[in-house]
């Protein structure tokens, strides 16, 4: 066959989330709790900064690493989490956190290296490891631990021999967060077994109880950690494609080596929006966060009323209830067909997620109300 896809690509299955979107798209009147995307628009002044940049004709590439002003704004902003990075050498602006994650795998993983992936997790890590020729080691987390990553889970999976560990907290799909002492236990494991860490903190601003803590802040971890973050979630800027990575100089240089050939620079218009977002949109972030928090409380209380078990998610904009039926995939399909409510079966997010469903509450309260009424009708027909 001509133009035959490489085995590396052909072997990666399509995303389990997409299939549900496609089903839902074919139907009318669907309330989707399936998408991991804010229902808000980006703050107005950030949009205006993008418009102004366009009006001024600022349509050229930027520096490979991103506009200096933006890197400075990022470095200043992350001090909120006790992170200190040099904007010149330790920050790389990317086309979404997605690009940063891909670059880190390509820059750090040699064929045959083992990457421990804490699961359930965002869908891009396992394929990203495969694209870079590494081997994935599944590390399931447990609902009994409120989906926190623990040294026991790492040991049970054999992660002592891993080269890298990747995880995200606040977590997609569970909504779990990790506190300082839980992270300190993971950090101790990583130092003891010489495991480096890729920490996806894209939901750091969407934390509802306690403050976000980055593992990179903990003793001896900065030098072995790459932190990812971005503008998609906190600033509702998914379509602008803007994210960043922070790491020691040599790692950022290696990632930039790939980035400068594959991307050149993150979207210029988005970078203008990003500068404004960090400098002047804190109140907008806080307003969105408090809306999400209201919705989170609403959904959790409705689940409780319905007798659906759900651990108390404390971050991101997802809840991860136990599926009332035996087969979550079947349940999600039947729910969609009978009541036009889309949720994603946990199995789309890897190991440790069996018997769960992911529901996103990045949807207006009215729609959430209707979705919960329909779910109730479905689980306990009159
Ligand atoms: N990491 C996690 C945990 C996510 O949920 C997402 C988006 N769903 C991303 C990364 C990708 O974000 P971006 O839009 O910045 O590429």
Describe the structure.
- This protein is an alpha/beta fold and 382 residues long.
- The chain has two domains: 7-42 and 283-379, Aspartate Aminotransferase, domain 1, CATH 3.90.1150.10; 44-279, Type I PLP-dependent aspartate aminotransferase-like (Major domain) (Aspartate Aminotransferase, domain 2, 3-Layer(aba) Sandwich), CATH 3.40.640.10.
- The protein has 13 helices and twelve strands.
- The strands form three sheets. Strands 2-8-7-6-5-3-4 form a seven-stranded mixed β-sheet, with helices on both faces. A three-stranded antiparallel β-sheet has the order 9-12-11. Strands 1-10 form a two-stranded parallel ribbon.
- Helix 4 (68-77) runs parallel beside helix 10.
- The termini are far apart.
- 4'-deoxy-4'-aminopyridoxal-5'-phosphate binds next to helix 5.
- GO terms for molecular function: pyridoxal phosphate binding; transaminase activity.
- Its cofactor is pyridoxal 5'-phosphate.
- Belongs to the class-I pyridoxal-phosphate-dependent aminotransferase family.
- One of its GO terms (biological process) is amino acid metabolic process.
